[in-house]
Amino acid sequence: MESDLDLTAVAERVAADAADLVRDAYESMLTGATVAVDTKTSATDVVTAVDTASERLVRERLAELRPHDAVLGEEEGTHGATLELGEEGVTWVVDPIDGTVNFLYGLPWFAVSVAAQIGGVSVAGAVVEPVSGRRWTATRGKGAWLDGRPLRVSAPTDLGVSLLATGFAYRSERRARQADFAARILGRVRDLRRQGSAALDLCAVAAGWVDAYVEHGLKRWDWAAGALVAEEAGAVLALPGQDPGLGADTILAVAPSIADPLRAALLECGVGAV
Predict the structure, then answer these.
(1) 0.90 exceeded by pTM
(2) Distance CA 166, CA 179 (A)
(3) What does residue 115 show for φ and ψ, rounded to 5 degrees?
(4) Rg (CA), the chain
(5) In sequence order, what are the beta bridge partners of 117?
(6) Are strands 212-216 and 191-193 parallel, antiparallel or unpaired?
(7) What is the pLDDT of residues 213-248, one digit of tens each?
(8) Residues 6 or more apart whose Cβ sits within 8 Å of residue 9
(9) Taking a C-beta distance cutoff of 8 angstroms, is the pair 192, 168 a contact?
(10) pLDDT band at 80 (very low <50, low <70, confident <90, very high)
C-alpha cells in the first residue's frame, strides 16, 4: 500500500521537472527572449505562457505516474478526472509558478508548488525553486525538509522582535485596505516582508527566516504545499475559513511562541475587516 511518503516523492519529482522548464524559460528571458503575457482578474494579475506550459508538464507527469488521481491547477482548473476535493481519493493541487510577477520581472523568488490532498487536506507536498534549485518538502505527520535537512520554526521571545511576512491582493481597492492594516500592524512587530510568493513565504516560516505570515485572498493552489511545510515544521496554522475572526479568506502561519499575542494584535489592527 502506498504511503504519504510515496506521494511526497511524486510531488517532488514532478515539481522538479516543471521547475527545470521554468528555469530554462527564465534564463532565456534574461537573455532577451520574450514571454507571452495575459491577464486574469485584473491588469496586475498576470499569467504567462510559461505558467501554462509548466502546469501542462505537471499534468502530463502526473498522468503517467498517478493516472487515476484528480488534478486541480491554477491555470486549467480541474479536468480529466472525476474525483472532487471532498472525496477520499488523491487530488493534486498545482501552482505552476507561484510568484509569476517576480518571474516576469526577473526577480528570482518564485516556485513550482505541488501538493497531494485527500479529503481537502494536504498530506504531501513539494515547493521547488527554479533559480536556486532549493526543494522544500513535507509529509503529514513525518516532518518538513529543505533539501533533505529537517526544518523547525523560530521561537521569538516577544512579538515586538518578530518578523512578519505578508502579501497584497491584485485589486486596488482591497490593496488599499491591506495597506491600512499593514500600517497598523507594523508598529507591533520588528518589521514586515512582502516577497511576492505565498508558497515561499510559508516555507520561510518553516525555516525560521520569518516568524509569521498572514495574507488575505489566497487560493488553494497558493497554500496547499507551503502550508503543509510550515505546519510540519511546527507552525501554528489557520487556513482560509478556519478562524473566522481573522476573516473569511485569511491564512496565518506563526511560530508557537508568538501565536497568541500575534493573533490578538492582528484582530486589534483590523485583520478581519480587510
Answers:
(1) yes
(2) 11
(3) -135, 145
(4) 18
(5) 91, 122
(6) unpaired
(7) 999 999 999 999 999 999 999 999 999 999 999 999
(8) none
(9) no
(10) very low
